[in-house]
């Protein structure tokens, strides 16, 4: 297979996230049949030789140790585990080192049998005719048998955790979920359209919030992550939250500056430019089907009204980053596949930009209160690593009316 891949003049890669596993190939057009046949053979007829498995176990141990030694890489993992109490999205993306030896050929074959099913798969392509791709998929994947599954009862963002009631004035004005409004619109990107709700997505991940301190006396810095549960990908407020992240921005204490570097973002103007002891400060937003995690600083800085100029700058930066990313063919095909999995259709860039343009200072403030306000009932997740813990963080949250500490 390595010889065949080298002959493509391109590359084949596999990557995984909390909700998907993706096989991707970049190659010359004439190599499309070979690339798809190699991916098909890898999925349908994998060969797990003992010596290769042992080599990958050793590689996994090394990579896990490397990641664990870097706070900026391991803390987001711990943040998810604490936020969702080790369930659903809280399951570790990294295999615990003491369980690596349990991964053998029978276990991997069972995983493939359980999860690599046609009703869970999307094949997307860019730079080729649709009919050509359909013919190749039929040739190389038709042996996969469809297994009917129970459709999910709702496609809307999951309801708040028990006891967490969001006041009506903090919810979006349009009650239908984003995915419903999108699937009603005509689309020339998808032919034929899949059956809506044909994929069982499983139960929603229970967000719990929480706190964890990882002592590290050798660390040069203290590191802190503070997050609140955001909204899922289908919620109309997702565009406000994405704009909010760009508005907050952030980065390192040193930047070369220049247009588009985010030097006018809130975290630079309010924190990094005034507090030299802060080496790095940035917002983050991890988005999933039924939930998301958003950084703390929005709660402290967005209770004040956002100016039109500041908001326009954030919206323009978000739209430009979106369109520039899609100039890459690899990003374009990945985006196509992920959107079909989530929305059952390809959302045009123009439609996304229209949604971003609809964001207003009032909607930003409403969503900030929905996610971080005391009335939201949203519990924070606090993870720290370094010489000392953050102390009485609950009192600090209450002092600034942040969440439900």
UniProtKB/TrEMBL annotation:
GO cellular component: mitochondrion
Peptidase M16 N-terminal domain segment(s): 2-97
Molecular function GO labels: metal ion binding
UniProt function note: Substrate recognition and binding subunit of the essential mitochondrial processing protease (MPP), which cleaves the mitochondrial sequence off newly imported precursors proteins.
Entry-linked PANTHER family: METALLOPROTEASE, MITOCHONDRIAL-PROCESSING PEPTIDASE SUBUNIT ALPHA
Record's protein name: Mitochondrial-processing peptidase subunit alpha
Protein family per UniProt: Belongs to the peptidase M16 family.
One of the GO BP terms on file: protein processing involved in protein targeting to mitochondrion
Cited Gene3D superfamilies: Metalloenzyme, LuxS/M16 peptidase-like
Biased composition (Polar residues): 152-164
InterPro entries for the chain: Metalloenz_LuxS/M16 (IPR011249), MPP/UQCRC_Complex (IPR050361), Pept_M16_N (IPR011765), Peptidase_M16_C (IPR007863)
Superkingdom of origin organism: Eukaryota
Domain Peptidase M16 C-terminal: 106-299
Region feature (Disordered): 150-174
């Amino acid at each position: 297979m390595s010889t065949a891949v080298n002959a493509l003049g391109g590359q084949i890669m596999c990557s995984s996230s909390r909700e998907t596993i993706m096989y991707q190939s970049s190659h010359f057009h004439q190599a499309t049949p070979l690339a798809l046949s190699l991916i098909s053979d890898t999925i349908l007829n994998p060969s797990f030789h003992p010596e290769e498995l042992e080599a990958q176990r050793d590689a996994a141990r090394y990579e896990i140790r490397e990641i664990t030694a870097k706070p900026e890489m391991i803390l987001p993992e711990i943040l998810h585990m604490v936020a969702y109490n080790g369930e659903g999205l809280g399951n570790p993306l990294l295999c615990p080192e003491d369980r690596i030896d349990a991964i053998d050929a029978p276990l991997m074959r069972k995983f493939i049998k359980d999860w690599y099913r046609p009703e869970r798969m999307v094949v997307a392509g860019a730079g080729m005719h649709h009919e050509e791709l359909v013919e190749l998929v039929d040739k190389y994947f038709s042996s996969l048998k469809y297994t009917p599954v129970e459709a999910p009862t709702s496609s809307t963002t999951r309801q708040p955790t028990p006891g967490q009631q969001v006041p009506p004035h903090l919810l979006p004005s349009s009650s239908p979920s984003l995915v419903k409004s999108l699937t009603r619109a005509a689309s020339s990107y998808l032919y034929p359209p899949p059956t809506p709700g044909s994929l069982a997505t499983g139960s929603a991940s229970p967000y719990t919030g929480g706190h964890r301190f990882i002592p590290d006396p050798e660390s040069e810095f203290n590191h802190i992550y503070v997050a609140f549960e955001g909204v899922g990908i289908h919620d109309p407020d997702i565009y406000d939250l994405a704009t909010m992240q760009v508005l907050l921005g952030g980065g390192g204490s040193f930047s070369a500056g220049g247009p588009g570097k985010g030097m006018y973002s809130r975290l630079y103007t309010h924190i990094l430019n005034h507090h030299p002891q802060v080496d790095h400060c940035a917002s983050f937003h991890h988005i999933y089907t039924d939930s998301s995690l958003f950084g703390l600083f929005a709660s402290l800085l967005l209770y004040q009204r956002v100016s039109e100029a500041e908001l326009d700058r954030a919206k323009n930066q978000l739209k430009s980053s979106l369109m520039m990313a899609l100039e890459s063919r690899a990003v374009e095909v990945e985006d196509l596949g992920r959107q079909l999995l989530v929305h059952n259709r390809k959302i045009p860039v123009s439609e996304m930009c229209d949604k971003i343009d609809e964001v207003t200072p009032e909607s930003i403030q409403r969503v900030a209160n929905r996610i971080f306000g005391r009335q939201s009932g949203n519990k924070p997740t606090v993870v720290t690593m370094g010489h000392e813990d953050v102390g009485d963080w609950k009192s600090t949250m209450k002092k600034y009316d942040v969440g439900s500490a």
